[in-house]
Amino acid sequence: MAGRYEHHDVVVVGAGFAGLSAAHALTDAGLSVQLLEARSRVGGRALTRYLDDGTQLDLGGQWIGPTQLRINEIVQRYGVEIYRTPAHGAAVNDFDGDRREDLLPDVTELFDSLEAMCRRVPAESPWEAEEARQWDRMTFASWLDATGRPDVATRYVARVVSGGLLAGSPAETSVLETLFYLVSAGGVQSLLGYEGGAQESRVVGGAQVIADRMAADLPEGVLRLGEPVLRIEYSDDGARVESTVHAYRADRVVVAVPPVIASRLRYDPPLPPLKDGALQRVPAGTALKVHAVYAEPFWREAGYSGISTSAGGLLTETVDNTPPGAPRAVLTAFAYGDEAVELRRHGADARRASVLERLAELFGAPALSPEDFVEYDWLAQEWTRGCFSGHLTTGAGTTFGSVLRTPVGVVHWAGTETATEWNGYFDGAVASGRRAADEVVRALRP
Amino acid sequence: MAGRYEHHDVVVVGAGFAGLSAAHALTDAGLSVQLLEARSRVGGRALTRYLDDGTQLDLGGQWIGPTQLRINEIVQRYGVEIYRTPAHGAAVNDFDGDRREDLLPDVTELFDSLEAMCRRVPAESPWEAEEARQWDRMTFASWLDATGRPDVATRYVARVVSGGLLAGSPAETSVLETLFYLVSAGGVQSLLGYEGGAQESRVVGGAQVIADRMAADLPEGVLRLGEPVLRIEYSDDGARVESTVHAYRADRVVVAVPPVIASRLRYDPPLPPLKDGALQRVPAGTALKVHAVYAEPFWREAGYSGISTSAGGLLTETVDNTPPGAPRAVLTAFAYGDEAVELRRHGADARRASVLERLAELFGAPALSPEDFVEYDWLAQEWTRGCFSGHLTTGAGTTFGSVLRTPVGVVHWAGTETATEWNGYFDGAVASGRRAADEVVRALRP
Predict the structure, then answer these.
(1) B220 Cα to chain A: minimum distance (Å)
(2) Please, are residues B13 and B256 in contact by the beta-carbon 8 Å criterion?
(3) pLDDT tens digits, A201-224
(4) Which parts of A167-256 fold into alpha helices (H)?
(5) Does A169 lie at the interface with B, CB-CB under 8 angstroms?
(6) Could you read off the pLDDT of B270-306 as tens digits, one per residue?
(7) Which domains are delineated in chain B?
(8) Of A111, A260, A291, B319, whose CB is crowded by the most CB atoms within 10 A?
(9) Which of residues 276-315 of B touch A (CB under 8 A)?
């Protein structure tokens, strides 16, 4: 039974970007840390897969933007190489068959309205916005409907914002939560762009490389893989953390997993009512990301960049996801919300057929015959249960929202869903881990 | 290690009204059943407490209506006595200080509109309503706002329907989910009334008596208390159910706990994406029910029945909860949604003071000085985590709603949240348990 009650200053639960960042900040502060990860790998919602020929597929998060200062600094520190998202050719915006490179004026004006509304929402405390209650009681869908703009324009904005950013449908989140998400990233333009925006750069070797380097740089013994944490016992005197393998004692705990997963740990004593109520109200996104692998980037010859955004159809977005020098070409497609749910009702074959058919509509018949077709459903993953990230349900922003990152005694909370800058991104995850570590350091080293 | 792998035809998880009903239906069909309950008692969200002098307080569900045929039949079968909810005097409807026995015409007309809309929603499959998508993408708050009715009228309806029935705020649920809940109970009038409605009768000895009788009538050994189930392993060949105490093998499992609790069990293999996504989207209600106990029912002398409904203030509803022949008098108050969250932020003393102050405004100064003041927060209870019941979040009715009660292999799902008649009530729980049992019987005895 050696090791059953190892003592550490801090146990960190979850070795995604939040947990890794917390562990680094805590060890840097001279504290002893045990970082426990359920999976046999680090990186959380970043996962890179290599096909036999070396073609790199980022199955989860993959982009880095220039204003994401924390993750950029980490990338630099570890000498991780990044490259510009390729754009060989024209982007397609498909407005129900009206295909154009630019946006409809109605869409631009809707984005401008959102940008203006964002300025009224403080990222640190969206519940304090003057219109917080009014915006929390209305879905983003209702707000769009009320603008009176043409259906195709509101649908496009819904799919880009509630889908492409929040990974759900405009029916699922409030105006307040939507604006909070936008403002946490610096606004609409900062989020949507490739050049200068959140999708500007990709990682050579895949986003998981960053997490792997962060893990490798932790002191020996800090990280333990393959140890799902099931239970946290806590009191004023410290905590006892039970994984499937061991039990650990610590003065403080940092829970650095998505809210849905955090809600499924057992706590003794049970979490306070408002904390539990908050964790009940952050369902994870339903994004489906699939990859079609071709011998050649046939779309480039036809003048397309592979980047598309559609107001209709099962696929909201596509992107040329071919890394430079890759042996084959990759077209990656995204579905969100209602379409992502519908695609999950299909069998794998029907899903593949639907996706390829839509890719062919967008880029031509060669899309119908990929050499490989790879999908990975984060909603099926026991230790994630949805992607990109979780969002507060309607009405919860003004009631439970303020509780999400509040410590419960010696238990602290990280994860990109608790971030106030770049919420939902790697950068927000890093920020949240450091913020939780800072809380712990201040508590243990007053 | 005797008993570690006991085999039964069916393991039922949770001995609330759903689990008890499933266990009865299954044993009646000749199947061997193990019913596992986490707590040291049965009854789930029904819990009766007796003060030292014998005064009965129903801390959870307490009412039975005449059209709830299943629970009435059970009450009769076990010789449980029920009595009419007392009404000695006038009810108060408080419209921001305009206190009246009748309703504002705007309120009546809003109820009529809802009644008409209910007729367009099939309780078995609300997602098939013609307006399903439109009603799922809009909160009930937005619908009320769009009626253009006076604020005091829409607030009253919001508090009565989204609060008094769904135990939340109108910002939290869609029009579709709200209508489904109403229609599952036969419509607005069926739900709101005392006389002839869902609150017509109470149970002598408390609602828990019914569950106790149901448990006592199960064959010896079927029920085991104090055994929280943590994990369900399942395959085509059957299941292995692990509690904190034992492990059981069974051909089929019925999970009869609220969705939030069901989502926190571990499943191997992990639940399929859509099932898990559905369970992520049924947060439990936030009702707070508190009891002020007085030597005398002073409100009756002033001509009040103790029944009140308010468009404003922290308390949405009050009721004279004194059982006939009780040694003392009980005034029970309810808060929901935003007010219930706010009251939870107060300390116990401040909460008590706020509640009593409002009771005094309604019924006079004697309300300020109760002999006892009892509260019980279901959101704090590890094995319930909210009351009255859970509701699908906005947008989930048309996407995930149809999955809630779909079996996953040999695992079946009960609980009042899965009911299509009297969803959220004892009667719905009974119906759901019988429906799940029926699925099992048909599978095992084809």
Answers:
(1) 31
(2) yes
(3) 999 999 999 999 999 999 999 999
(4) 175-184, 188-192, 208-216
(5) yes
(6) 999 999 999 999 999 999 999 999 999 999 999 999 9
(7) 5-44+208-282+392-444 (3.50.50.60), 105-189 (1.10.405.10)
(8) B319
(9) 276-277, 280-281, 283-284, 286
